[in-house]
Amino acid sequence: MIPRVLSIAGTDPTGGAGIQADLKSIAATGGYGMAVVTALVAQNTRGVRGVHVPPRGFLAEQLAAVSDDVEIDAVKIGMLADGAAIEAVSHWLRSCRPPVVVLDPVMVATSGDRLLDAGAERALRGLIGQADLVTPNIPELAVLAGSAPATDWGGATTQALDVSRRFGVLVLAKGGHLPGGTVRDALVDAAGRLAGGRTIVEFRGERVDTRNTHGTGCSLSSAVATLRVRHGDWVPAVGSAREWLAESIAAGADLRVGGGNGPVHHFAGLWSRGGLHTRPVPAQLAGRWWHQVADVRRDIESLPFVRGLADGSLDRAAFDWYLAQDACYLRDYSRALASASMLATGPTEQRFWAECARGALAERERLHRAVLGGLGQPPVAPSTARYVDHLLAAAARGDYRVLVAALLPCFWIYQDLGSRLARRGGPDHPYRAWLDAYGDDEFAAQNERAIDLVTTAAATADEPTRDRMWHAFRVSCQHEVAFFTAPLAASRPTG
Ligand SMILES: Nc1ncnc2c1ncn2[C@@H]1O[C@H](COP(=O)(O)OP(=O)(O)O)[C@@H](O)[C@H]1O
Ligand SMILES: Cc1ncc(COP(=O)(O)O)c(N)n1
User: Fold this and answer.
1) InterPro entries annotated for this entry (predicted)?
2) DSSP alpha helices (H): ranges in 251-368?
3) In angstroms, rounded to a whole number, what is the distance separating the alpha carbons of residues 457 and 285?
4) Which atom of ligand 2 is nearest to the CA of 220?
5) Which domain does 458 fall in, by range?
6) Is the C-beta atom of 211 inside 6 A of ligand 1?
7) pLDDT tens for each residue of 202-217
8) In this structure, which ligand is nearest to the CA of 183?
9) Cystine design at 188: which of 2, 122, 160, 489 (Cβ 3.0–4.6 Å)?
10) How much is the ipTM here?
């Protein structure tokens, strides 16, 4: 489930704070971000130049437009600008109360500029009771507590307990403004509803020596709102939001945005973990591989052996020779399938390949009884030997992914050919049993499963492994051509 998170805040055209930061934070922590603008702020990393506040009615209209249509999982409230905006949001919250409401009581920017009318502080206090969590920094906490700003951590937590008790709200007190090499935040609930009945859960981290702290408060509160929906609890939400923010603050300077207090790098963690490197999805790989063996598939279809099989004109001796080689093939193919089962990491894959190995052995025994009449093992033709050697070599190298890629053509090429040939001729077709065996629904389902397992393994593999898988797959396809060519080739051994 992807949390649908609404930010109600002001703007920052340089993208580091306000709504712009909120949308990035929500996305970076796994949510779908939405935004209602309370104020247009002409600001940059150095300071605020001007604030334009749209009419209150228009704020109400934006809020209704979202909530009339979208189910909102969490709301983060940031800059509200003035008393009229506070009243509009308060009114909206009374009619539409999303399950998670986080209020960042933005009053003054990092640059020292006011973002809330001095006269609106009382109205903002009135809104606190409608939130689940309020996230003040040191100066904002002091305003809410009605005291002077705390000068140490003890003073800050005392004020946070006071605010929590007075407003009946959970408080995340942020200690970024206090000096020291350790930055502390604390989740405070005077009612003692935190894990284990505690009133305070403290979070500590190393202070990053940086000027890139513009928008840290906005970013943290949006991340907490998003992660609260994902985790279902406040303590893990704050813990993971802080971890994410710490690496985003540390990477902020890499962005080289602005000459003042620069932004944090919201996607630093995601990008460094491979977020920018796109991987193909399984269905895409299946399409690509299949397309890239179109030449092989055309070659197979135009072989005299396959055309004779389709129209029934194929020489019976050639067909029996083919079946004898098929029996030889199945003996070692089942060993390679069993190896895939042994190498598989998940139980589903393990069972699937084991069942295929059992099926291959059963088919080999059936061929022996029905066709070879107990004549023993026929001599192995070079084309058969080369194909099974390719499979057994992949098994011996022990890479599950490459092995299953090598095994796949024997499902896919056969199923494709079988399903097309099955539609040919009537019930009296001389090779009806063969056509039916490879054209039936059960084999089609097994083939789908094999394609899915192999392409999923390829999609999650690294690039070099994916290339080796593709190569192993392609080589097996070429062995399929040789296998179908051999029965009518002049050089084939007789008997
Ligand atoms: N230099 C820093 N290094 C690491 N974390 C920081 C730093 N500055 C702020 N933080 C963290 O960023 C978040 C916002 O903190 P703070 O600066 O106190 O609030 P605001 O941005 O609202 O003024 C908090 O989680 C705080 O611990
Ligand atoms: C629109 C807007 N909202 C909030 C802040 C505060 O930013 P910070 O998180 O640095 O306190 C800001 N500068 N602009």
Assistant:
1) Haem_Oase-like_multi-hlx, HMP/HMP-P_kinase_dom, PM/HMP-P_kinase-1, Ribokinase-like, Thiaminase-2/PQQC
2) 268-270, 282-292, 294-301, 304-311, 316-343, 347-367
3) 10
4) 9
5) 282-488
6) no
7) 999 999 999 999 999 9
8) 1
9) 160
10) 0.98
